Model the fold of this input.
Amino acid sequence: MLQDQIFDLILSRFPRKSDAVDALSLLLNTGKDPIYRRMRGETILSPQELSLLAQHFHLSLDELILGKTDLVMFDYNAFSRKIGQFSDYMEGMNHDLAQIRKMPNAHLFYASAELPVFTYSLFPELMAFKLYQWGRTTWNLEWLRDRPFSFDIISQPVIRECEQMLKHYMSLPSTELWTAQIMDNSLAQVEYHVYAGGFRDPMEAITLLDRLHDWTVHMKAVTTAGTKFIIGEAPIAAGAKFNLFYNEMVYTNIFALITSDVGRLAYTAYCTPNFLKSSDSRLCDYTQNWFDNITAKSTVLTLASDKSRDWFFHEITQKIARKKQRILLHIEDNR
Done:
């Protein structure tokens, strides 16, 4: 019965049945007893209630009624929250991450051809540059149109939001797949803004490259330890586990899969850094199978893989060094 399927799916999102009842009581604006009667099938859900539950819990009624279908329901953060300030994006990210952290035994599977978005927050300078870049391109923020980049582009409240995002990420165990091109986009963006006169002070580009080098040093240490930790701290056994794979033949878009004891969520970048989100079981299955198949054919860089890990991070640092030399020559030639 459709109603039974709907409540089974909703109950799977909560650690306890009582939590689901509380949420449904609030959503449907009714008492707990009417919720239990609906769960037992004694009261039939009205069309309005069906619609509300499907929208709120992102349930595909097509799939439940028709069976197999190619339709997948997504949330798109750019529709639910228009970005007018950097804080709008950061607050949305932190809201999602806070909800994920409440999921028991949550684990992040993350694949990317760019630096993981959370790790820009290891250094405020890098996060400032990425927010500026997204603000000028994807979000088309009017107040940035004619403004060159400088490190004071983000306020202290936004920096605190960035630190909170990093805290969420550092507490979440993850298995990640990176490619050889992971640093390329950031380096190209820095170089472009240097040549286009996009820095208030061109030497800030050199600072950014130094922070990218520091990022590489720290993420190599995290990979070596197999445990996440903040700069300036030491890895501890109780820290969130970090497992990194490298594949030279794969160039993937940015996607993430969250698994937990109470459900799964699939994310994919769309008009970066905006993202689509779905709890569709078939999509989550497909994403997990893809990730498992690719990592089985990839090189593990965590813990014991000294030679492969050294080579991978050495390649990144060499790219940064070459870019730094080119930009320094350009700055010197244009003084």
The two ends are 75 Å apart (CA to CA). The domain at 2-66 is CATH 1.10.260 (434 Repressor (Amino-terminal Domain)).
